[in-house]
Prior knowledge:
Elements: E1 3-9, H1 16-26, E2 31-36, H2 43-51, E3 57-61, H3 68-81, E4 86-89, H4 101-110, E5 113-117, E6 124-125, H5 129-144, E7 158-161, H6 162-165, H7 180-191, E8 195-199, E9 201-202, H8 214-239
Parallel strand pairs: 1-2, 1-4, 2-3, 5-8, 6-9
Antiparallel strand pairs: 4-7, 5-7
The protein binds guanosine-5'-triphosphate and magnesium ion (MG).
Amino acid sequence: MKILVGIATYNEALNIERLIAAIHRHLPQRHILVLDDNSPDGTARLVEALAASDRYLTLIKRPGKLGLGSATLAMMRYAVDNAFDALIVMDADFSHDPRSLPLMAELLERNDFVTGSRYVEGGKCEYGLYRTLVSKVANWGARRLAGIELRECTTAYRGFKTSLLGRLPLERIKSTGYSFQVEVLYHIVRHTDKTAEFPIVFADRAYGVSKINKKEMVMSVLTLLRLFKRRVMGQERAQSGV
Length: 242
Ligand SMILES: Nc1nc2c(ncn2[C@@H]2O[C@H](COP(=O)(O)OP(=O)(O)OP(=O)(O)O)[C@@H](O)[C@H]2O)c(=O)[nH]1
Ligand SMILES: [Mg+2]
């Protein structure tokens, strides 16, 4: 299988070189795409320097910070357009352990979608109390409001077959930030039942600062309500035979 590992970066200069090396170690001779939004800390320059002597490394630079969701969408389009069989996405900050990459690649052989999960047996989250609560509420909302029947709906350590991505109505996705994770999953579970969750221990970021803020949280609540409305209206249409 031709796999692309995609990493969205914003100010990840303290992590990115080590992460690229770790990905190559755990998934040798696979392509890596870094999509950087003009990070002020020079992340792109570091990747450019590595890419000069690494034929498996590609950098896409965008002019400004356009959000993790839109970055993930751009990586999905790149994977489809460049005839990869699968795309694995992960955060740059070592919250997502690169040692799980071989398992993801194996699971993708027989699934359309795989996700690292803090909420299956063996999974764990090393967040403090506040963020644990936020995560639990977001996952509860994703299951109850958006009707996504997975234990883990918000983690961004994910793998997709590009044949699935090609079928999704990506142009209908409105979220550009963190709530993209739930919105894309809403479509995924409606297009395939070949999904798998594997346990991860979610570590807090190694270096650098968080980009998640109050605005992202408000957007996530609004997205859940929008998906709930769409789901209920869809059921009504189905019941009335429209
Ligand atoms: N290209 C791009 N990448 C982004 C953007 N926002 C966040 N990222 C990247 O998305 C990944 C997840 O962001 P994080 O800041 O780690 O978010 P988080 O894991 O919820 O929060 P912390 O781990 O506490 O920082 C990281 O690799 C970020 O560098 C963005 O606007 N554009
Ligand atoms: Mg993080």
